[in-house]
């Protein structure tokens, strides 16, 4: 089987089209496709003649066959038919990838080309090269060049034209046995010539050839997928009919291939199946101000039910005189030749059709359009789609936005894009959101259906050739009907704007999604068209049976019903004090040492917990003390230290609450319920919030000390994570080292504050590959675990890219040896320095590796870009090769975020981050968070030192007692 440029071009547009052409399927007819083929052939014939006639002028000789191109002069040949040699497929691939020429032995071919060599060796690749030019050598070491030439009638070059030129170069390279790196494309009305580099396109051509060969050898057709090329394809009617018969998902025009494949993996293959996947969901608060995304399942439901589904309330308003607009043009030339303007509504509307015979008339019709807009009172320009948006931008650049009279300015006029207004909010029962489909469903019909889509381009080009008045009239009438269709769709949307409005004005069969109830709830409301079922369901409820049924037939149920319902904990009872404490009076101020003024005596009850080694119990203490006033520091004194400031609760109780919430990650509701049930202590949630806020204020200095220590240390781990603050996305930055951790709140991910925070930092920053860290003026170590995961994902996504696998494999072997040394010797530079030679060898091999695939090139560039940041830890003591410390701290915040179960506010989030920083630092330093809170200490380092001193004192006393006992025994 032979792969020709015609099959290759068809595959680039649609695999199904390629397969149908290979099987000689009869086309179902498409005027635009036939016109394109005619234009291509005529442009090729005209271009070939121009090339022949211009050859003599440039001193170039036209030769009949390609073998004559090896002469010494500047030669040219046209209409060349060439094909690859089966026996030299391996040789062609090696030369195209830059390897030296060698015999076609399968064992000499790299693994990356094995599958491709097999496919090409079994399939001929044939090309009809439009022309080939030979440029003679310019001296020793500069051999002659062979340039393939291709013609394209379009003014704008597409990627497919370049790939077709690369296919010509691949076949020509095999025929001549020479490497070809540059080609030419002659295109457009002016026969512009563009030089194209072939080398970067050859890898894509080879991959496409491999896929085409697999497609052609398969007896069954490929999966039918409708795409944007269908309107230009000769098999459009055939494919669409089969897609409708099979109810294919690709009928939904807005669905991407990735989403369609995802549905296929879930077992959903038809539009009807997808329609049952829609579930009405409550929109989150943080997304209420954003536009609703398009739900293809709801689109499928609208098609199945043949109803209009409305999400929310459409906000379309036309406050002024509507001016419906539709523009016809030739996109290939950037030429707008017809502007349709419909002013007003209904039968009183006035239609204007502004026609341009040539490009020179484009400015004239633009000025006429501006005059129409200027003569309209309070105009609102209404159009459908983005083509008119581009039209306004281009015309404003070319001819200005005010016209000759200067009375209208299109930049200040209100414009409404109807398509943008209905996307995501209004779902019509049509497979696409095109104007033709929606207006047709609303009852509008076009009298000239032959001009729909790209066929209008064909009609315009035919009019330029024939100047037929009837063809011009048809185009103008078709454009006027488009303006009328825009009016009909606009009026339908305006009737859908208010859900509670009169239903008579709405289009028939309209459903508002907000009125739908979710049928999937496990414990939802029971509804039934049978009224008796609702009464039976009510009688089966637990409360109903307990209060109405069981109480009539069970004595325990009667007693339970008569028993008053009250809290078993007896929280309303006033507990007696466990202890009464008489506090001694004060002589002087404990803060400034000045004289104090005594005030009245006070009795206060302390509600606290007694925390022992094996138990916790409620502890009520009555304190009797005198209050004092210090004129020097203007403070009130005398309150016992056991009271938490401005509270009746004790320090142990506050420490227990903070420990449960921040360390154990227990939600607030459960903590409060536990206090009430087991300890009989009532605490409203607002009281806990007040205690938490005062604790954050109390430990603010501890938090600032942690930040200062991190910024002045020798090692810093950094990371960031998202958080919802008042419904908006914000970020929490995490900084840590081996002993401390701190959290910072920021409204955005912009890391500009890092430079100010770490301006005096002289150590090493360990982070991921986020670009904000690259601007820091210090040494950096990128997390190799992040890099390893990214490379692993790339390999999984591209399992056949052998170049990528080779790079990743070498990096894995390098990192494995380094990690083994770290496990044996630790993070000591004197043992890790020996791996620097391995790193240099790795980069040396990487630089010499000839990568062709896009993924391998990206991987190679990533290693080169971060060369000075990947292996910094080899030269530093105590610097890890991963960012686990920061990631562990991020997980701690993520657990707290899950406990909150809602959105933070900036104030509460900052206070909770202070306490979480203290909690996480205690963990890193091996300190029990509860013990630290109970101690009243603010410096964690001082608390650790005091604890060690007490432990050493206890150990010395134990040793002294042991020695005394041993001496007495000896005596």
- Provide mean pLDDT, rounded: 82
The 3D shape can be described as globular
Biggest beta sheet summary? 7 strands, mixed
Number of helices: 35
Helix/sheet category = alpha/beta
CA radius of gyration: 40 Å
Report on the structure:
By secondary structure, this protein is of the alpha/beta class. The chain folds into 6 domains: 2-216, Lambda Exonuclease, Chain A, CATH 3.90.320; 321-497, Nucleotidyltransferase, domain 5; 579-698, no CATH class; 700-781 and 884-938, Nucleotidyltransferase, domain 5, CATH 3.30.420; 784-875, no CATH class; 942-971. It has 35 helices and 24 strands. A hairpin with a 4-residue loop joins strand 21 (728-736) and strand 22. Helix 6 (159-176) crosses helix 7 (199-216). The longest helix is centred in the last third of the chain and has 31 residues, at 940-970.
Task: Produce the secondary structure layout.
Layout: E1 2-3, H1 5-13, H2 15-22, H3 31-57, E2 61-62, E3 75-83, H4 89-96, H5 114-122, E4 124-135, E5 145-152, H6 159-176, E6 182-187, E7 192-197, H7 199-216, H8 236-246, H9 257-265, H10 271-275, H11 296-305, E8 308-310, E9 321-330, E10 335-343, E11 350-355, H12 362-374, E12 379-383, H13 387-399, E13 414-417, H14 418-422, E14 426-427, H15 435-441, H16 455-466, H17 469-495, E15 510-512, H18 531-539, H19 542-553, H20 555-562, E16 579-582, E17 597-611, E18 616-630, E19 635-637, H21 651-663, H22 668-678, H23 685-698, H24 700-711, E20 715-725, E21 728-736, E22 741-746, H25 753-757, E23 764-767, E24 779-782, H26 784-797, H27 802-825, H28 829-832, H29 836-848, H30 854-865, H31 867-870, H32 884-900, H33 906-924, H34 929-935, H35 940-970
Parallel strand pairs: 1-4, 2-3, 5-6, 8-15, 9-12, 12-13, 16-18, 20-23, 23-24
Antiparallel strand pairs: 3-4, 4-5, 6-7, 8-14, 9-10, 10-11, 17-18, 18-19, 20-21, 21-22
Helix pairs in contact: 1-2, 1-6, 5-7, 6-7, 15-17, 16-17, 19-20, 21-33, 21-34, 23-33, 24-33, 26-27, 27-29, 27-30
